[in-house]
What does this fold into?
Amino acid sequence: MFQLSNDAKQKVLTELTRYESKQSAVLPALYIGQKENNGHITPEVICELSKVMEIPESQINEVFTFYTMYNKSSIGKNHIQVCRTLSCMLNGSTELTEHICNELHVKMGETTKDGNFTVTEAECLGSCGTAPMMQISKQDGSSKYYENLTNESAMNILRGLK
Amino acid sequence: MSASEINTSANEIKYLSEFYHLPEFKTLEGYKKNGGYIQLPKALKMQPQEIIDLVKASGLRGRGGAGFATGMKWGFLPKNNEPRYLLCNADEGEPGTFKDRMMMEKAPHQLVEGMIISGFAIGSKKSYIYVRGEYSDSINALEVAIAEAYKAGFLGRNILGSGFDHDMDVYRGAGAYICGEETGMISSLEGLKGQPKLKPPFPAIQGYLKKPTIVNNVETLAAVKYILRDGAAGYRKYGTEKSAGTKLFSLSGNIVKPGNYEVPLGFSLKDMIYGLGGGTKPGKKLKAVIPGGSSAPVLTADEAERANLDYENLAQMGTMLGSGAIIVIDDSKCMVECLANLMHFYHHESCGQCTPCREGTGWLDKITTSILAGRGRLSDIELLLKVADNMKGKTICALSDAAALPVLSFVSKFRDEFEFYVREGKSKVKGVVYKTPSYQSDHSKLGAH
It folds into this structure.
């Protein structure tokens, strides 16, 4: 059964009083829960948050399912999100994504067998002047932008993360 | 276009972005050394109404997309002592836009100072900066800047002995384009799904937690302290009569020198593309330009070379200035593929609340994808226009219109490319049918029929 660590529980309780309304803490609390559960959220995480926050599960769940940054299934140590929207597409993001997937032997949304990488596409990440680009997020929620990519530079970055 | 026709003397005016090249501008010390927090004490000695009048006189208009007069928006607040909120819209999500990110990363104090002054003007004791969840660097920069501002006495109780209290906090979004719509943002800040609310009541009357709330873009709020510094007339030195001041434009797509450029409103789009942007790559010609983020109707190369970057001129040309995101498309790109890419975006981002948008974006995505796969019929072109037409002005927020407008403009201006694709089953530009990338299962790319 999933349980928040004491530290994480404390953080959730802090969020509950941080905003003018208790409900506003739902988004930040989901981030805390996701970090505690190695980068994705399960029904058990929602159940635990509901108990700690005293907010019905249904209210947390509808927020969880609405937003893309809460992962619905497990992710690898490195979650690669390649931007696919117009400015990146015009600069070769489709070919870049294809190259990354081929090199890692995965299809979109899949995780490599060693659990190192999950590849997904993302909609515009606001890095259009440095297209194509990818964002890599760790299971603890930290993330970084990698910009002006070529097939080679992207693979070099990924090799450095193994 | 020959080189002689390009006005190379048309340069950037670094008004807001004057010190962005200095790494120290990010810190409190560096910001103060370069003119920071000089306007705040001055503002706190003024009457709030004086500041609102000044902003009205400056002609400042919202820099996030709609271009609504900032001072007038502030004037909609109820004239009583009811608590009110200032909410900074930093959910920059309009495809092609990356100016707010630069502003927050390079000059977080510029925004913080602008917000404290704006908060004082509208009588708000609490403000939030709603930043899109992906912008970790922006969030970190703002959190550091806010902490520094508290320590220096620019935030908190009795700021600089003025008797004015103001608290500021950052709220992290979680990946939803719709939260850039002001009422969607308010829902999200309330800890709910980011679904927009019907207006009226407008947020200035009933916003966050049903309290009066002013929602302004990053660039809008950052500009406020410059209006104080230079006065309304000083601010109006740049721009046109109805589109005052400078604006940051994000230039991207098939362009030699992409990036953010600050120019006076009214600047020629041709000079932006060929002068500052260095034009298209060698051997490529300009085909189309989206002048104000992906929701703005597309311009042909010919139209783009005649356009000026201000609210009125672009509206006259049937498009809009929007967020100032200029996406350049050269003649090696297929317009059917570009439109299909955008329709996938809007389908993904529709919040699902209103039927015309939820279903319409789905159909637009399916039909364009089907044409792209070589399975289109001639009747699909009319169907696209019909679906798009049924999506305009029929929903709670503007996302539905934002998806419909590109369809209407792409198809009417580049109809030959769409007809060729449907007739021949391949791209007029590329000579081949779009190859579904191997990383996608064929299923996910199946078209409408």
In short: The longest strand of chain A covers residues 78-83.
